[in-house]
Fold each of these.
Amino acid sequence: MAKYDPNTTTLGELLADPDVVAILEKHAPGITSNPMIGMAAAMPASQAMAMAGGMIGADTVAAINEEVSAL
């Protein structure tokens, strides 16, 4: 079973995990320090990542989701 469920885990909860932050930074350098990320912190991770797809690309979002799901 995965550590996180992207439909119920908020982006803020993911950002509290250094392993997830490392994954995000690996695929999208600087994303965790982007001021807009704070506005999405209360959203379910799946919703926030769908919105980020326009900024970082669907392939990057897929790679992030794959690695986070493997935790």
Note: Residues 11-69 form one domain.
Amino acid sequence: MSITKEYTNGEVTVVWQPGNCIHSELCFTGLPHVFDPQKRPWVNTDGASTQEIIDQVKKCPSGALSYYMNNKKEDNMEIERENIAEVILNGPLLVYGNLKVKDKNGSETRHNKVTAFCRCAGSFNKPYCDGTHKKIGFEG
């Protein structure tokens, strides 16, 4: 079961899927008044302007954070037309675009925007990255 949490300021809703998070720390180093892992809830959508929140969420490399405008949820679903794979130094393989991932049993999972795949072989959520590469000092 995948967990999804939503936080809103009335104008924009930030969607967090912790199972996709690779703990890049870009969210809270880039906008600490909104994203603070030491607080509960850890997302404070009143901590910055809507545009600042959107700009920071777009920097999330794993896609664990996304957003939609409250007045146009369907209109904000971005569709990638091209798939791009990017190797992150000492980190995961990021694949941008719409993907259908089939597991060994034939079950399919759909992923949109960005999917982070493990390269260190240490993830407890294979084939996806869970941030273990930082704990084990993966280089590559």
Note: Confidence is low (pLDDT under 50) at residues 74-80.
Amino acid sequence: MDDEKLEMTTAQLLDEVKRAIRVVLIGGQSYKIGSRQVTRADLLQLRELKKELEQEIASQGPDGLMDNTFVAFFEGR
């Protein structure tokens, strides 16, 4: 396979991780067919990777300086 076809953007990778999480949640962590057992990716690791990818995407904003910052205005003081 061509290496360029294997490269994914962070957003594409995040979509794949979300899909993998859904598969584990719906189909279970492992399953057995006859004498063979298949274990899917670890759910905890997938969730950690999802969080990292979301943070990476958030940091790629315009400047990342005040991302996830909220301002509150309190009247009557």
Note: Residues 10-27 form the longest helix (18 residues).
